[in-house]
């Protein structure tokens, strides 16, 4: 039986319920509920600009209302004890002696504490409970949401003392250094700096960003293949190394090239024969994808939906054929969605190797789209898809 997630917002837990869960575990919180604080941090979907962030390029993610929420009580005992609704494992961390990586979700908690401390930020102990509607391993950045939510909780009574962009960079460092994935900044940036009703274009070199409002009447649909994203850190890090190999070769001919961001198609064509064929394909994806992000921003602003759909299709094909991070399930979901009435673009989103697609659809077309995915996709793939309509929301902050 296939299940549909429906509207993402309808699954969110409210502050009072989460506070009650904390009170049930923590006598101090139960005795004085005014000590309870709560924070939310969103997952993200990337509209376009995949595997460009670590190449100093452009991305266009939206923070979405699939969220991680934590109710917590700041303490002065230098200890974090955090329970999760999804995992019997507790995060128990002595902030004076943080444990080494264990290979589970608690690494994101420890890594965030270490990265905040390294950045000179105050780090406070807390007792907390976590509830999440961001599916794990689905390519919707549950790890970035966890890092941002934990960063807020570790900040104690007050909001973090730095700008969201700087907090995002600290969270990225947690993942790079403690968890060992050499991810770019996109996910943490989106979770920290999302805007309601908009995607946000980030220039990953200058870190300048600007909101790109979603066209009126269109909604974002996220569909999960039912295939856990196997982001083996190894496959991801290998793509990154291939991009670096392309830069090293091209810089021999054109000094000053520091990243694929500095490369255009003419330069790539001129030196194609000097590059390993696989490395050439990876570089071609990144160079063209960067151009597509800027073209998509323009097309969304002009409500040129035909162009948006074409750019999404080209992005997906490039990720499938040149970057080789798609899979048959993602391709099938995109084929079904792109062929449905009222759809103006569909593609895989996130790192790939399983996970989710993002689809831009007219609000009135979503029910039929959902039925097609739950019927046709499930039949043809033998997998259990999930489908959410999501809203673009603000980045991490206090939960009212
Ligand atoms: C993952 C990484 C991001 C980005 C995407 C691919 O989500 O965490 O930094 O590289 O893959 O676009």
Task: Please give a structural write-up.
The chain has about 400 residues and is an alpha+beta fold. It folds into 2 domains: about 10-215, Ribosomal Protein S5, domain 2 (2-Layer Sandwich), CATH 3.30.230.10; about 220-390, 2-Layer Sandwich (Alpha-Beta Plaits). Helix content is about 40%, strand content about 20%. The protein has helices spanning about 15-25, 25-30, 105-120, 140-155, 165-180, 185-195, 235-255, 265-270, 275-300, 305-320, 330-340, 365-380; strands spanning about 5, 35-45, 60, 60-75, 80-85, 90-95, 125-130, 200-205, 210-215, 220-225, 345-350, 355-360, 385-390, 395-400. It has a 6-stranded mixed β-sheet, sandwiched between helices. A 5-stranded mixed β-sheet has the order 1-13-10-12-11. Helix 3 packs across helix 4 (about 140-155) and helix 4 (about 140-155) crosses helix 5 (about 165-180). The longest helix is centred in the last third of the chain and has 25 residues, at about 275-300. About 50% of the residues are buried. The chain binds alpha-D-galactopyranose (GLA). Alpha-D-galactopyranose (GLA) binds near residues 51, 54, 184, 186 and 187.
- From the spread of the alpha carbons, the general shape counts as globular
Overall helicity: 40-55%
Question: Bound compounds, please?
Answer: alpha-D-galactopyranose
CATH topology of the largest domain: Ribosomal Protein S5, domain 2
CATH class of the largest domain: Alpha Beta
Lateral arrangement of strands in the main beta sheet: 6-5-7-4-2-14
